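Task card 7
Instruction: Convert sequence to structure tokens.
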Amino acid sequence: MNLKSGFVTVVGRPNVGKSSLINSFMGRKVLIVTEKPQTTRNRIRCVYTDAEHQIIFIDTPGIHKPLHRLGHFMVEAAVQAMKGVDLILFVVDATKGFGEPEEQIIGLLRASKNRSFLVINKIDLAEDYEHLAELGRQKYDFEKTFFTSVVKNEGVQELFEAIKAAMPEGPMYFPPDTVTDRPLSFQFAEIIREKVLLLTRDEVPHCVAVIVDEITERDNGVLYVAATIYVERDSQKGILIGKDGRMIKQIGTLSRIEMEQLVGKKIYLDLHVKVKKNWRDKDFIILNEVGMKDDLQ
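Output:
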């Protein structure tokens, strides 16, 4: 049987469940997920392979009105990811429906002229959502519409099977054991950033960047990982370190456990927190932290 393969971009406003959907398709956690908007900051490819398919899912930052250079990079990454793909999943939050971000995305869909599925997600949180399908059809010629809840595992498998069926015959773009195209340093940085988002207050999340400075295997087989967490203010640094260093220790412990599960090795994680005022307007940290150098070439 010939292989069916292709690229599927997942778009939507921040916090509609794009990363959670892709993790469900992958059957494992590949992308970090939190309840904080704009958790995903760049374009990340996740590679699903079985005996008959190879599907490259492209997770994108939520499309929003940018307030910093970081936001402009994030939106540009999402826009670029809609070009030249085989299918676009437009994910809409069932509790929010169609607002200004959705209208912006529909304009981008018209420009891309790609095949598109409308996905009404988080139906477990909304009582009245079925009308969104008709509203979506009025706005754009979606090929199909799906209602999903990742939390309740409703509609996800039906959507996945439709994605598989929509893929054209094609080559194997990545080795069959590939899960993501991002390097280990990026994956480690994302794990650390996820723990920061999960553990800290609302004042901190959008002001955090993580750069892995070093990964070295020691003679005893332990992987030494040095990483720097950047924030914009001294007060945020204090929150991250915590009283008697408790917060940074908790961030480090949770991060190390997940990193060890990822690579199957013992890890010594060396975390540091630095203040870099207004880093979201500085290309050095933006390009390194979100990996945009490759995305925007």
